[in-house]
């Protein structure tokens, strides 16, 4: 769940769900204990204004008696016009305090307990509308994926038609890269940053609909251009559709998914990007031999159909998105609590689960509203040490998502293969194999991202990508997607959506997506010239070196976030980077001695307090 601490807080009413004074004292005590265990000096100076702020957001119901919770639930239902569900909210308020302690709640019947047990034991058994929402909205990513791969095919034709000769003129290499990278330049400069106001005004579904419309119309526009700079203008406007979607879709998925499978559902953005790359390449092959019609003044019908075909997933999203429920969090921020409850009833199996989640979301929003400092959220991203570390970590993974070199293959593989002596059809066929592999190999991440972990996936796959890119440089074909799709593909968007505390998460996500699109543009813009100056082997070697560097950056700057509550993430990002680094470096020596030299060593002292209690 994510919203910035901005003007929407005026819509949240004062609360029947406000924490009691005893609960506040207990929270403060817990934060003091956390300071002593973690040992971060910054708690001495910022405990009340920064760390307590994030700790309160973890569970504002902690420490309240069950009788009081029942009364609060009933009062909440009456206050919000949900009095016909008063019993569900009385039970839901008690369950919300500790969702795993339901067995001891006397208000619950056996049927209620069975539902809550099954929620834990069968985590993938969710209402079909939740999966429909995730797949439908993540199809928005297919627009971006299709644009990348149809551009790959179109690059074989349109530059010659518009007088671009990259072999004869160095300046034309820069022009080709500038036009190909135009959407991602627009994303970084404008698209990502208009996400927050669009979401405030239109909601999640409305933002997705409008940006899908922009994408559809600009894809058709690209098919009708009559000059290279006309094509640049159309592609630049396309970025105004891609940018806000990339910041909104993962947040929408996070706000509607149950926590136990949130990582897997949020990463669907990258899964469907890979799907779009695969379909776009297949579409390029389908239109490859389409000739210009006689008697009609159309030149380059094949590449125009390629570029225009990327509108198809946008029309699909537009047709389906309003059949999905709106984000309950956005509805609550507009005081539309009954609609929020109806939305959750579609996304959960029972009204008890919907009441529990609605009550908790509302309590979190009220705490968020009460903790606003008045500073700009973008300022707090960099001025608050805890937030700054999350900003650095998410910026690192987003930067490396582009400089791992995967989009070089997505944009230019057909051109590279042609320059290596392959014919155009063979070049596109090899690219189709890459796209299919990229999509299929995203499947392991769905099952491992919430168990093996974000950091471990990155540290495992970056060295593999470095090796595969070296092979690609030597042989022009290697299965790099096998390493990218399980690791650097899905992790950055998922990591960025959860690393920031609740009150700055919207702006944090805008920043993170702006970083990835900025460097996407840099890759697209520079590669034609890089290819000429370094040769294909040298160009791929360049990105292989960046993957090796990425392994080091991830090791030092990106802590693990899997399976941790918001309060525990505060502890993670409140530890100074130097301390994290020292602990991880010492761990290299410890693991080498224990697992390679087989020495009998005592357990290491844990870095985090909860690790001492056996929680990974």
From TrEMBL:
It comes from the Eukaryota. Signal peptide: none annotated. It comes from Rhodotorula graminis (strain WP1). Keywords: Membrane, Transmembrane, Transmembrane helix, Transport. The chain crosses the membrane at residues 174-196, 208-225, 271-291, 303-324, 392-413, 425-449, 456-478, 508-527, 539-558. Its main location: membrane. GO terms for cellular component: membrane. One of its GO terms (molecular function) is transmembrane transporter activity. It holds the Pfam family Sugar_tr. Belongs to the major facilitator superfamily. Sugar transporter (TC 2.A.1.1) family. Residues 1-36 are annotated as: Disordered. It is a multi-pass membrane protein. It is found in: Membrane. Residues 1-12 have a biased composition (Basic and acidic residues). This is Major facilitator superfamily (MFS) profile domain-containing protein. GO terms for biological process: myo-inositol transport; polyol transmembrane transport. Residues 133-562 form the Major facilitator superfamily (MFS) profile domain. It catalyses: myo-inositol(out) + H(+)(out) = myo-inositol(in) + H(+)(in).
